[in-house]
Amino acid sequence: MTNPPIIETHGLTKRFTVKRQEVAAVTDLSISVQPGELVAFLGPNGAGKSTSLRMLTTLIPPTAGDARVVGHDIRTEAAEVRARIGYVGQLTSGSFAQRVGDELLSQGAFYGMRRADAVRRADELVESLGLTAIRSRSVQQLSGGQKRRLDIALGLMHAPPLLFLDEPSTGLDPQSRANLWEHILRLREEHGTTVFVTTHYLEEADRYAERVLVMDQGRVIADDTAPALKSTLAGDVLTFGFGSADEASAALAVLARVTGREATLDESGRATTTVPDGDALLPVVIRALDDAGLAVRTATGVPPTLDDVFLALTGRSLREADRTADAGTGDDAEHTEPAAEAATNLQEASR
Amino acid sequence: MTATEPRTNAPVRANVLRDTRNVFVRELRPVVRDPFTLIFSLVQPLVFLGLFAPLLIGESGAPVGETLQWFVPGVLVMIVLFGTGATGSNLQYEMMTGSHERTLVAPLARSSLLVGRALKEIAPIVVQAILIVLIAWPFGFRIDPLGLAVGLALLAVFGVGLGSLSYSLALATKDREWLFWGVQQTLIFPLLILSGMLLPLESAPGWMRAVATVNPVNWVVQGERALLGGDFASTAVLWGWVSALAVAAVGLWLGIRAMRRSS
């Protein structure tokens, strides 16, 4: 890969002052993203995902560190960065008082497109995102899924080489969510757009992202493809059932010898162990157990999820982390990182 | 690459005028799409015209035309005070629903985001003011065309300033709507009463008249009265313009500053 990275950050840090106390929202973010990558920031609410995105999109200045986005410095060349990125925030991009078609044309004008080009581009996007029938409706009248598709259209109006999406599928039903991802993936295929997305949905990161940055408490704690994260940090869980408790106990030693991993009995008295590359090991282990005279009655191999990865990294599951983040702030799940947002408000009000 | 893709390596040149025009056009679109919203917001000034003016007439015993000549300019300023003074709530709503954030990520000059919005306020002010004048006309209100034109310009300048102040308040109060409305309502009624818009201040106690002399709305109302009466030589015209321009300067300065800090 000889291309210069499309995103490059060094020690990017954001601290807010809340009630005279410094809160670190993002600490020492150092990443490099190549053109064309599809990267997901995965982490619980309050992990610092949105704050990172808001720094990269020039919405808020970093406390320390620096970043270049599409070849320009986010601090000193904000206008250059803004002209070259698309951004789909957590909330609704279209003004509720505006009509769908009008917002698209305004957006085109904002990015310096000639009117004829903007009209043509709006036609394309309206068509491909299924907004044709609601083009002359006001944003206020749209359903949640329609609003989100308009957000995407607005983010793509100027065909940016880099698109940021902050929790694009939060609040959508599963069908709209799948539909949304279809659009994002197609866009990427057609235009080679680099896509940088935040999510707290495991399945989403697992299924769509090529590269997952796991974020917790303001830091990136893992950075790899989803399969690599799972095999290095979590592994497949192999479980074997036997006719008697004695056999199960005896199997533990065989499992440990063959896999090189510790084996234990689970709550139903079955022998279980966690291994990388479970698919290949499963038949090997069964043969070894047979050779040892232990008759395997049941055998399962369960691949890990990214939640197992998060658990292995932080000692708590993503869902637990989400719950504590929400309970701590009393906010709903719609607004991720409410603490950071509240912090921004406080900080700016106190200026 | 399709024809619609931008030349991503071309340098970005800040163009405040173009940006301001684009923001202005966007803000104007809902008004053009739905001009009846302007008519609906005329209800309040019409209520004052229809229910308050008769009281003034009964009180003073002066002819209807003469009373309207005094009262209508105040009603026009009232349109600005209540309509434009509340316009920040539109921005506040967009801050809360998300579209303001989108415009902040777009390559637009921050000053344009404020000025474009403020300039849009001129449209409803001018349309509504003309409608009120036309409604008052058959009842004996005299229209001096040149005076009306200059009077509308005065209202426009004052409106741009007041609108900017309203936007500043929205940017400062962020998602706290109660704070926006609390401050707005706390200010608007004293400004209204101490402007001599509804009732003359001549018989007011001394301290009220003293406060009224530093109320720019008072000077704008007096200037508007002189202009609509065709009395261009009056010093009230001069002070009206000085006040309106001062409000515009302070409003735009505060507003642009607040917009630059917005995230």
UniProtKB/TrEMBL annotation, chain A:
Membrane topology classification: Peripheral membrane protein
Subcellular location as annotated: Cell membrane
Keyword presence, Transferase: no
Single GO cellular component term: plasma membrane
Keyword rRNA-binding: no
One of the GO biological process terms: response to antibiotic
Stored Pfam families: ABC_tran
PROSITE patterns to which the protein is assigned, alphabetical: ABC_TRANSPORTER_1 (PS00211), ABC_TRANSPORTER_2 (PS50893)
SMART domains referenced in this protein's UniProt entry, alphabetically: AAA
Region Disordered, annotated ranges: 321-351
InterPro entries: AAA+_ATPase, ABC_transporter-like_ATP-bd, ABC_transporter-like_CS, ABC_transporter_ATP-binding, P-loop_NTPase
All copies of domain ABC transporter, residue ranges: 7-242
Keywords for this protein: Antibiotic resistance, ATP-binding, Nucleotide-binding, Transport
GO molecular function, one term: ATP hydrolysis activity
Family: Belongs to the ABC transporter superfamily.
Protein name: ATP-binding cassette domain-containing protein
Source species: Agromyces seonyuensis
UniProtKB/TrEMBL annotation, chain B:
Keyword Mitochondrion carried by entry: no
Sorted UniProt keywords: Antibiotic resistance, Cell membrane, Membrane, Transmembrane, Transmembrane helix, Transport
Gene Ontology molecular function, alphabetical: ABC-type transporter activity
Subcellular location: Cell membrane; Membrane
Coiled-coil regions listed: none
GO cellular component, one term: ATP-binding cassette (ABC) transporter complex
Keyword hit for Metal-binding: no
Stored InterPro entries: ABC2_TM, ABC2_TM_bact-type, ABC_2_transport, Nod_factor_ABC_transporter
Gene Ontology terms: biological process: response to antibiotic
Domain ABC transmembrane type-2 residue range list: 36-262
Pfam families: ABC2_membrane
Membrane topology: Multi-pass membrane protein
Membrane-spanning residues: 36-58, 70-93, 122-140, 146-171, 178-199, 236-256
Family indicated by similarity: Belongs to the ABC-2 integral membrane protein family.
Name of the protein in question: Transport permease protein
Originating organism: Agromyces seonyuensis
Higher taxonomy: Bacteria, Bacillati, Actinomycetota, Actinomycetes, Micrococcales
